[in-house]
Amino acid sequence: MSFYLPDSYGLLPPWLFMVSIVSAANSFQAYITTKFTARVYSPEAVNPLSSRTFGTWTLLSSIIRMYAAYNISDPLVYHLTLWTFVLALAHFLSEWLLFGTATMGRGLIGPMCVASGSLVWMLVQWEFYSMGGWTIRPAEDIGLE
């Protein structure tokens, strides 16, 4: 299994890989049933169309995150991936606090923790990954000369 994992330093790429796999699985189940989507949102707010729309949105985020797992030092990919977590967190917070279609509980706490934790992690590690922190660079490139 390890040959599928991203070949880079740090834990962020494998984390993005795992989050992407879980998100893709969540997307597929959203196409099949509304049961799990109704755990996040109030059952009266969930219908087959909203579940499939949520599944499509989640699958797109999953693809971007998987791409980042293998291309973590590409600044464009890093920024796009960061934005997937910003949008996810904003979405879940707004559905909970603004629209009232989600209640804090077992169904919402997981996605909120993943979105907020990943967002903070990516912000903290921004310079390391965007500057190719694991590569050896000439001294003049990092201001040592």
From TrEMBL:
One Pfam family cited in the UniProt record for this chain: Erg28
GO biological process: sterol biosynthetic process
Keyword Ribosomal protein: no
Record's keyword annotation contains Magnesium: no
Compartments where found: Endoplasmic reticulum membrane
Location, primary (coarse class): endoplasmic reticulum
GO MF annotations in UniProt: protein-macromolecule adaptor activity
Keywords of the record: Endoplasmic reticulum, Lipid biosynthesis, Lipid metabolism, Membrane, Steroid biosynthesis, Steroid metabolism, Sterol biosynthesis, Sterol metabolism, Transmembrane, Transmembrane helix
GO cellular component, one term: endoplasmic reticulum membrane
Family membership: Belongs to the ERG28 family.
Protein name: Ergosterol biosynthesis protein
Protein's organism: Heterodermia speciosa
